[in-house]
Amino acid sequence: MSKLASFYGLVGLGSLCLVFLFFNQRYGSPMKHRIQPILAVGRSWEDFETTPEPYEFEEPVSNAAVVKEADDSVATLNEIQQVLNLQRRMIRDDMIGYQYPNGRYNKSAKRLEDLVMEKNGKPIRSVIITTWRSGSTFLGDVLTAHPGVFYHYEPLLDFDIVQIRGPPLASQALRNLKALLNCEYEDLDHYIQFGRGHSWLLNHNSPLWKQCQSHRRICYNHRFLSGMCKLFPFQSMKLVRLRLRVAQQLLADEKLAVRLILLVRDPRGTLQSRKHRSFCRESPDCSDPSLLCADMVSDYNAAVELQRKYPSTFRVIRYEDLAVEPYKHVEELFKFYGLDFHPSVKRFLDTHTKNDVGGVSSTYRNSKAAPFHWRADLEFEEVEEIQRNCVVAMKHWGYVHAINASHQREFNPITDYVLRL
Ligand SMILES: *[C@@H]1O[C@H](CO)[C@@H](O)[C@H](O)[C@H]1NC(C)=O
Ligand SMILES: *[C@@H]1O[C@H](CO)[C@@H](O)[C@H](O)[C@H]1NC(C)=O
């Protein structure tokens, strides 16, 4: 009897386990089963922003003078020279067939040397101003799809999770940015030391990172970094910590001749995306809707002025517009920069924005839906809270309020409105 009982007991337990396993497999992780807005096989727009942002404190900065001296050894200088020679040849090969502006877009460059700093040329410089989780990684990656690009990825990482709106941080930040845009790494010890402990400072710059991986010894040598930087005809920079009021000083610098883009995103999308980032929670600049939207209002007011003052070197774009019509906007942006629409850029768009799921009519809902995730992922109460804090910002930038929970899931949050600054 007791044998029979334990037999049935075991069978019962076994079936329970099976049932549990079955349900766990099926429903255990609902995230996996949600339809993802797939852009490329296995890659979504959001993937572009999954790089961890720093919140660790940097390692103690080692005695910079000692580092510099040690870096001057003949072996090191030789190794640097060899890598630079190799990279110079690679860039020359990549640029074969490139359509130089040759007078178009207000750019006189006729050949590679005209754009290369080591030959006293003037590179094409792009700066993107935005904030955390606003789709900028995608835009940055589109631009770096071009082989001649040296990418200064978020060069203010070592300032921690803060927004720089003015003094006292603004002057140091601008000094660093101008040094980088001029490829002058000599006085950037803090930046370089930060990079040693945080690989994502440099690893978005793929030509640089490739060399770093096979030449670790010279990767953080300021001579190497300056030398590499000066070989590239296009300098691209993305910033999430600097507000437009401060950044306009880059535009004002005629020698730099930067083209500057302000990239804007719906605050509901930005905040939804930030919710899942632990680096963000600790800092009000990152997590507080009223601060985000005050920045959006301040950026708007600055943008109105800059549009008038610098009509050919300043531009605004909304992430949602870019996502819905990537080819149209990327092509316009390349014209704005005076860049040839290189085949590798088209290839990048082909592989990162095409979606075969669902045919033509569903394209909008699938591959173009990434910026609108928040409609399903946020509770209406959270949306209301953001909207309360963002009335002016949303009006300026053309974002529509959700009225109730069901409306939120269905509506189109962007108006057809054309930004009139
Ligand atoms: C070219 O530069 C001039 C003066 O800097 C400016 O007025 C003009 O709008 C620019 N044109 C283009 C196409 O960028
Ligand atoms: C939500 O708002 C929409 C649009 O105003 C309205 O048509 C709908 O009846 C509302 N639904 C509820 C449940 O209140």
Automatic annotation (TrEMBL):
Tagged with keyword Membrane: yes
Transmembrane annotation, as ranges: 6-24
Alphabetized SUPFAM superfamilies for the sequence: P-loop containing nucleoside triphosphate hydrolases (SSF52540)
Keywords assigned: Membrane, Transmembrane, Transmembrane helix
GO biological process, one term: N-acetylglucosamine metabolic process
Domain Sulfotransferase span(s) in chain numbering: 125-397
A GO molecular-function annotation: N-acetylglucosamine 6-O-sulfotransferase activity
Membrane listed as a keyword: yes
Protein name: Carbohydrate sulfotransferase 5 isoform X1
Organism of this sequence: Neodiprion lecontei
Gene designation per UniProt: LOC107224297
